[in-house]
Amino acid sequence: MQEIAIEQLPGGATASSIRVGETLIEEDEIAREMQYHPADSAGDAHFKAARALVVRELLCQRAEHLGLAGDSQDDSEAAIAALLDRELEVPEPTEADCRRFHAAHPERFREPTRLEVRHVLLAAAPDDAEARDAGYRQGRRLIEQLTEHPERFTELAQRHSACPSKDQGGELGWLQPGQTVPELDRALQHLPVGLHDRPLASRYGWHVVVIDRRVEGREPAFERVVDRVRHCLREQASRRALRHYLLALVAEIGVKGIELDEDVDRVLMQ
């Protein structure tokens, strides 16, 4: 059984009155747990920490009932792992299941589009309006020069670019999604081969971009991705099994001060 990170359980909570069976979840426990649950606000982190402790306590109480519990934190984690190995029933996906899932979701297994890219970075901080404006105008001038004289790209990159790639004439090599900053990444995915007709913005400034080659992502045959398909189905089945198991423990042991509903499958698998 995979190790499970216990968090993200939906529902409302009142920290001072959260109980799992007869066990009170103390406020200082929640405060210590918050460091493991980064969030946009302290309130959200507090809430997520409280939910994580509730689920952990449910599992620990069940482990103790079955004689699996230990005294230390490490023993508790081992007991929870042993408990889930023992009590979670996760069906193994069949080949027919895998083929149906692959046919229904081919986009999930598509190979990424790859781009061979050169650029000139004209550096300008996001909050420096004057530098951003000057950089954009410079980028337009460079594009005009390159439209007339594309063979000068290496020269202009070495002269003007603020990126270390200038030493290679602005060459970034082959890129695929996720290999550069998101705002530039999104723009690059839609560009055709050739010199783009205007500078592209990123948090670092403006980019004069040439796409030298573009290789579109393909949907591989089932046989090439069968292991990935099977992994997806196992993960889905594990989440469903865990959701049902935790809801059964809530019904058996009882939880007050926080609601755990059908969205308990937001507990993440690692």
Polypeptide structure, described:
The structure is a single chain. With 270 residues, this protein is an alpha+beta fold. It folds into two domains: 4-99 and 222-269, no CATH class; 114-215, Chitinase A, domain 3, CATH 3.10.50. Helix content is 46%, strand content 15%. It is built from eight helices and ten strands. A hairpin with a 2-residue loop joins strand 7 (200-202) and strand 8. Helix 1 packs across helix 2 and helix 2 crosses helix 8 (222-253). The radius of gyration is 27 Å and the shape is elongated.
Q: Give the topology string: H per helix, E per strand.
A: EEEHHHHEHHEHEEEHEE
Unreliable stretches (pLDDT < 50, length at least 5) are 1-11
Biggest sheet features: 5 strands, antiparallel
Mean pLDDT: 88
Number of helices: 8
Kindly give the count of domains.
2
Give the total of beta strands: 10
What portion of residues belong to β-strands?
15-25%
Rounded to the nearest angstrom, the distance between the terminal CA atoms is: 10 Å
- Rg over CA atoms, rounded to whole Å, is 27 Å
In brief:
The chain has helices at 27-33, 42-65, 73-87, 95-104, 129-148, 153-160, 182-188, 222-253; strands spanning 4-5, 19-20, 23-24, 114-123, 171-175, 194-195, 200-202, 205-215, 255-256, 268-269.
Can you lay out the helices and strands and say which pair or pack?
Elements: E1 4-5, E2 19-20, E3 23-24, H1 27-33, H2 42-65, H3 73-87, H4 95-104, E4 114-123, H5 129-148, H6 153-160, E5 171-175, H7 182-188, E6 194-195, E7 200-202, E8 205-215, H8 222-253, E9 255-256, E10 268-269
Antiparallel strand pairs: 1-10, 2-3, 2-9, 4-5, 4-8, 6-8, 7-8
EC number: 5.2.1.8
Organism: Halomonas elongata (strain ATCC 33173 / DSM 2581 / NBRC 15536 / NCIMB 2198 / 1H9)
Keywords: Isomerase, Rotamase
